[in-house]
């Protein structure tokens, strides 16, 4: 039983399966059909596929890390610049935004730190 992923009827990818996996999937499918198509299995399967597909994307197309998002938001707030939507959607765009503004951000933070230090003294 060949398994294929089909994307908008324009792109299909054959998913290789060994005999053991194919047999187990067949048993799982029978269980799902017997239970009037077990929605929990369908949801679990679709979530696993989505996570696996996301992990297969080129690194710049993956989600930015939580640290990248926080740092990019701190930079945008500190410098008063717009944070592009892509910087919240793609790791590569987040990296580019941080790379572009990081030195100005650090300089601004240092100036602010010095100013508060002078005000305290």
Would you summarize the structure shown here?
The protein is mostly helical and 121 residues long. The protein is built from five helices and two strands, in the order ββααααα. The protein folds into two domains: 3-56, no CATH class; 66-120, no CATH class.
Notable characteristics:
single chain; about 120 residues; mainly alpha
pLDDT averaged residue by residue: 90
Secondary-structure element order, N to C: EEHHHHH
Overall number of domains:
2
Quaternary organization = single chain
- Give the overall form: elongated
- Secondary structure tally, helices: 5
Question: Span between N and C termini?
Answer: 77 Å
**Rg, nearest Å:** 24 Å
Q: Care to count the β-strands? A: 2
Please state roughly what percent of the residues sit in beta strands, choosing from under 5%, 5-15%, 15-25%, 25-35%, 35-45% or over 45%.
5-15%
Low-confidence spans: none
Helix content: 55-70%
Structural class: mainly alpha
Report on the biggest sheet.
2 strands, antiparallel
Main sheet: strand order: 1-2
């Amino acid at each position: 039983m060949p398994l294929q992923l089909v994307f908008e009827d324009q792109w299909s990818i054959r998913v290789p399966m060994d005999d053991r996996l194919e047999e187990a999937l067949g048993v799982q499918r029978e269980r799902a059909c017997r239970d009037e198509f077990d929605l929990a299995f369908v949801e679990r399967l679709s979530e696993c596929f989505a996570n696996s597909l996301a992990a297969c994307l080129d690194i710049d197309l993956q989600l930015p890390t939580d640290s990248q998002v926080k740092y990019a938001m701190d930079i945008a707030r500190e410098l008063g610049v717009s944070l592009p939507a892509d910087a919240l959607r793609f790791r590569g765009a987040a990296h580019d935004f941080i790379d572009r503004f990081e030195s100005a951000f650090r300089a601004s933070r240092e100036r602010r730190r010095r100013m508060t230090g002078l005000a305290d003294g």
